Amino acid sequence: MSRDPAATSYLLVETRFDGTAERFLADAATLVHTGGRVRLFLAADAVALGIRGASAELREFLDAGGRVWIDEFTLDHRTLRAAPLEAGVTSAGMADVARLLLESGTRVVWH
Prior knowledge:
With 111 residues, the protein is of the alpha/beta class. It has one domain (5-110): 3-Layer(aba) Sandwich (Hypothetical Protein Ychn, Chain: A). 34% of the residues lie in helices and 23% in strands. It is built from four helices and five strands; from the N terminus they run βαβαβαβαβ. The protein has helices spanning 19-33, 56-64, 72-77, 94-101; strands at 9-14, 37-42, 67-71, 89-92, 106-110. β2, α2 (56-64) and β3 form a beta-alpha-beta unit. It is globular and about 40 Å long.
């Protein structure tokens, strides 16, 4: 039995900053275009994607209606707290991620 993408909430976790991350973001934008409710969490090396102008694919994902969290721990650890974030990117912590993980109907993809 397949599920309606619009009835499912997706949490996509990206940890890389490379070509595969860009493809992952393009796939995430496609998922949003199909009606899915998609939240992307950028952690580890992927926080660099959230810096203003760093990723055209991230901008496309946001423009499609996707929502983006950036890991506050990594921002602090890598002294990026003052870096200009892409418009629409907000910082979040593990408590936020855990809360979303526990919501009924949330599917998680970790990359």
